[in-house]
Design goal:
Blueprint lengths: L1 E3 L8 E5 L2 E5 L10 H4 L1 E2 L3 E2 L5 H11 L3 E5 L7 E6 H9 L14 E2 L2 E4 L4 H11 L3 E6 L2 E7 H18 L6
Parallel strand pairs: 1-9, 5-6, 9-10
Antiparallel strand pairs: 2-3, 4-11, 6-7, 7-8, 10-11
Helix pairs in contact: 4-5
Length: about 170
């Protein structure tokens, strides 16, 4: 497991819009958003010996496009990642999802972000490594996941805040 990015000690003021959180950030007040500020909590996880069909069901129920594979439900150490793209590839290859185990499709040893990783470092990791999902850990345990949507929304929020501070039009 590899934690990407530099640790930041700033906190973010967070306002909730439905299930999704957004960050109101301002250079003027020195607030720098972190992965923990924009992540979604890790509510659904799977284990490597679970069936792929169960992962697909959980993704559908949770409205998720990826699940973190953990070593066990107590420790919640990320050991893999399974995405809807992995499942689509298996279906396209005519594999039996009911007989297939998650360990057969998952990406092993996922890159993770520490909770303190800055928004920019998380975004840089996701862009340079072509990731759409980045698990977030604290003390080696999974605490959430940052998706490309959360990163984009936080960047847009930050841009809008800058425009407002500079007296620009945000429309």
């Amino acid at each position: 497991m590899q934690a990407e990015g530099l640790a930041r000690t700033h906190t973010c003021q967070r306002s909730l819009l439905g299930r999704k959180g957004t960050c109101a950030m301002s250079e003027a007040n020195g607030v720098t958003p972190t992965a923990a500020d924009i992540m979604q909590p890790a509510l659904s996880t799977v284990e490597p010996n679970d069936h792929v069909a169960a992962a697909a069901y959980l993704m559908h129920q949770a409205g998720a496009t990826a699940l973190v594979v953990v070593d066990d439900e107590q420790a919640k150490r990320p050991i893999g990642l399974i995405t809807e793209a992995d499942i689509v590839e298996a279906v396209a290859a005519d594999k039996d999802l009911h007989g297939l185990k998650i360990r057969d499709l998952m990406t092993s040893a996922p890159v993770v972000a520490a909770a303190e990783t800055s928004l920019y470092d998380a975004a840089r990791t996701m862009v340079t490594r072509h990731f759409r999902h980045l698990p977030v850990v604290a003390a080696s345990s999974l605490i959430g996941m940052v998706g490309i949507g959360e990163v984009c929304q936080a960047m847009l929020d930050r841009s809008q805040e800058s425009q407002v501070r500079m007296g620009g039009d945000t429309a």
